[in-house]
Amino acid sequence: MAVIKITEQNFEEEVLNADVPVLVDFWAVWCGPCQMQGPIVDELAEEVSGVKFGKLNVDENMSLAQRYRVASIPTLLVFKDGRIAASAVGLQSKDGLKRLLGI
Amino acid sequence: MSEYDVIIVGNGPAGLSAALYTSRANLRTLVIGKDQGALAKADRIENYFGLAEPISGCELVENTKIQAKNLGADLVTDEIFHISWNQDFTLEGREGSYRAKAVLLATGTSRKKADIEGLSRLEGHGVSYCAICDAFFYRGRKVAVLGNEEYAVHELAQLLPVAGSAALLTDGKELKAKVPEGVQVITKKIRSVDGEEAVTGVTFADGERLPADGLFVALGSAGAVDLARKVGALTDGRSIQVDEAMATNVPGLFAAGDCTGGLLQISTAVGEGAKAAMSMIKYVRRDG
Known about the structure:
The structure holds two protein chains of two kinds. Chain A is α/β, with parallel strands linked by helices. Chain A has one domain: Glutaredoxin, CATH 3.40.30. Chain A has helices at residues 11-16, 32-47, 62-67, 94-101, and strands at 4-6, 22-27, 52-57, 75-80, 83-89. The radius of gyration of chain B is 20 Å and the shape is globular. The relative contact order of chain B is 0.19. By secondary structure, chain B is of the alpha/beta class. In chain B, 24% of the residues lie in helices and 25% in strands. The chains are: A alpha/beta, B alpha/beta. The A-B interface holds A 28, 30-37, 40, 58-59, 65, 69-73, 75, 89-91, 93 and B 83-85, 123-126, 128, 130, 132-134, 136-138, 197-198, 214, 229-234, 241, 249-250.
């Protein structure tokens, strides 16, 4: 499944109102570990169905980072029914992401 | 900026062993060492291959340094604070910056994490281990850096242009670096890092409180795990995750010796250094 670019404009529709769990990767261009997290998320998105994957650039969407108290990146949040169901701070392996999603 | 094929961070058995192989393979090799490391404390080494008589750790390392130099490796004394990756690597140290196609982390085990109440619990919620990564979130806010050496001052320098104010907390340790003017330095022991959902401040052993929105941990010198985390290598917090070729998940970044966990013996470090060197030779040649 393709990874969606999450923004302040589509956050509600793509994340909060989604009918499947959504894993959102909070990242930025200048963050070294984020550059490594991106491809891991891409790879998992190719393998897993029934889950939506999104990336949120904190530089462009600071209000969402603030709203979810993101203070360190990468931060990975799993949303279910509009609420945070799981979270992890710092680079996660593919297995780490799977554990986060409970799969 | 000095440019190399391979930069090895750490001049213990793993790092120097790797340097022997990469320089013999004609790769431009630089070994960056800070001090003698764990082996400086070993007076008599009796369980290493080829020693008719016991030898001290210092002597073993010094001998190998000469051996590496004779094979063409450059050796410098410096302390690395940060590594970034963008097809190749840039290393920032106290004495200068360096560039390489491949990097080996071989700085030994990282020291114990600070055992301060609240520190682990608030990681990612105000407690950070990377100023360059997270300074952005503290624009105009009050932050503190935990540490007492050059590494802490380096992290402070990343935060000062962004944060509203920054203090340096040494947690009872002696300050061993020059701090920019205007930075508040508190040398008292810390009792706890406070906050429910996010950091609100720090309480010292004497009960005094310092309000802060963020606490950046930079204790001692930047160890292999700190550097690995900043460049985006997977760690389990104490050791760096490598595959059987000593490669991390970052293309061109390798790790060997005590910083990968395991046996903590000279022989295994030397073996891992050799393995990592073979992988780096392959990587640099394939990459051109």
